[in-house]
């Protein structure tokens, strides 16, 4: 089968397109024919081996992962022994970040516990945009952020995968949502329902005197002390990503800030696919649909990872696997 091969850390144009043996499902696994995949920060980080912590998990000098790719949607072609919840022909989608990646290929084997049935009212292209970013948004806003009706919420870095799904997850709560991103993404964000918009190149959300009940951050661009000043009493700040130094600061100083102010600052650790059935329900009810940048062709994946790293994408970059194989 064809796959995108990660033979060394470098830049996306160091990735190779090659032939590898089609995998065979072990006990508890299914073999998935991948119809669509989407690009994530994981791919950008893994390909470069940056930040350094990635190398602690995936190989210090050379990547141990042969095929990158986190988000997929596809059809089950075969099931291994002991698989009880799925059969051949089922359409599924999932995040592979906790089971070895491998989404940029024609086929992948996945433990059945990682899978959810694809919502029947959307295409594989749309479905592939949902698992990783949708779950980060759901766990950040609902599970850890504990969003409540009537609150004031801000999403920093809101024009990418997490923010464009996050605003739709927030809608039913009747909250006022401010979105912060670069100027060229604000029109799209307005069309998705953000009540207030801010261009981070022109304004600093921690310096305008506004206070929020909940801040979800995809970039962690401000210090924990600055974000704490932008929270109301008992407010929560949840970050899903940013530089390692900033995330460490939030862990180290967050508890101290909580101790003295009651405001809660935390770093979310993704639990892959936990809540994906809830995402499916929102999609089936017509409350959630991804913003898709694409779909693009399989052989463009290296360029698309670079495009993601350059921050030029809107929403989720999607690859239709059968195109360009
Ligand atoms: N916690 C976990 O376990 C876990 C797991 C996986 C991933 N993650 C993290 O989750 C995040 C995923 O977010 P995503 O998929 O939404 O990423 P994304 O699609 O790249 O969106 C991030 C947005 O932030 C904007 N941005 C860049 N610099 C900014 C700044 N200084 N201020 C405000 N906005 C800025 C970007 O726009 P421009 O570039 O155009 O400016 C982009 O639109 C990543 O940080 C990733 O590392 C966390």
From TrEMBL:
Molecular function, one GO term: oxidoreductase activity
Pfam families: ADH_N (PF08240), ADH_zinc_N_2 (PF13602)
Positions of the Enoyl reductase (ER) domain: 10-319
InterPro entries (UniProt xref): ADH-like_N (IPR013154), ER (IPR020843), GroES-like_sf (IPR011032), NAD(P)-bd_dom_sf (IPR036291), Quin_OxRdtase/zeta-crystal_CS (IPR002364), YIM1/Zinc_Alcohol_DH_Fams (IPR050700)
Superkingdom: Bacteria
Protein's recorded name: Alcohol dehydrogenase
Organism for this UniProt entry: Rhodohalobacter barkolensis
Source organism phylogeny: Bacteria, Pseudomonadati, Balneolota, Balneolia, Balneolales
């Amino acid at each position: 089968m064809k796959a995108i091969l990660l033979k060394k850390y470098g830049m996306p144009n160091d990735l190779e397109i090659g032939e590898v043996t089609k995998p065979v499902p072990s006990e508890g696994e299914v073999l998935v024919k991948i119809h669509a995949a989407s690009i994530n920060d994981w791919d950008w980080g893994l390909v470069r081996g940056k930040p350094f912590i990635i190398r602690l998990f995936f190989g210090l000098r050379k990547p141990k992962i042969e095929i990158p790719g986190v988000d997929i949607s596809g059809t089950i072609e075969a099931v291994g022994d002991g698989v009880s919840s799925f059969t051949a022909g089922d359409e599924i989608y999932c995040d592979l970040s906790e089971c070895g990646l491998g989404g940029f290929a024609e086929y992948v084997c996945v433990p059945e516990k990682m899978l959810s049935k694809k919502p029947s009212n959307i295409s594989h292209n749309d479905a592939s945009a949902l698992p990783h970013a949708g779950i980060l948004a759901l766990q950040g806003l609902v599970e850890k952020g504990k969003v409540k009706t009537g609150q004031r919420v801000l999403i920093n870095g809101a024009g990418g995968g997490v923010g464009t799904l996050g605003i739709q997850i927030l809608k039913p709560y009747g909250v006022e949502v401010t979105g912060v991103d670069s100027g060229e993404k604000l029109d799209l964000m307005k069309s998705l329902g953000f009540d207030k918009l801010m261009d981070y190149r022109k304004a600093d959300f921690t310096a305008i005197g506004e206070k929020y009940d909940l801040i979800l951050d995809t970039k962690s661009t401000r210090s924990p002390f600055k974000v704490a000043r932008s929270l109301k009493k008992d407010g929560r700040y949840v970050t899903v990503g940013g530089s390692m130094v900033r995330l460490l600061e939030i862990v180290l100083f967050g508890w101290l800030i909580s101790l003295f102010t009651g405001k809660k600052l935390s770093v979310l650790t993704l639990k892959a696919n936990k809540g994906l059935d809830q995402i499916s329900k929102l999609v089936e009810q017509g409350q959630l649909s991804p913003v898709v940048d694409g779909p693009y062709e399989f052989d463009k994946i290296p360029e698309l990872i670079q495009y993601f790293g350059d921050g030029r994408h809107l929403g989720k970059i999607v690859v239709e696997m059968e195109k360009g194989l």
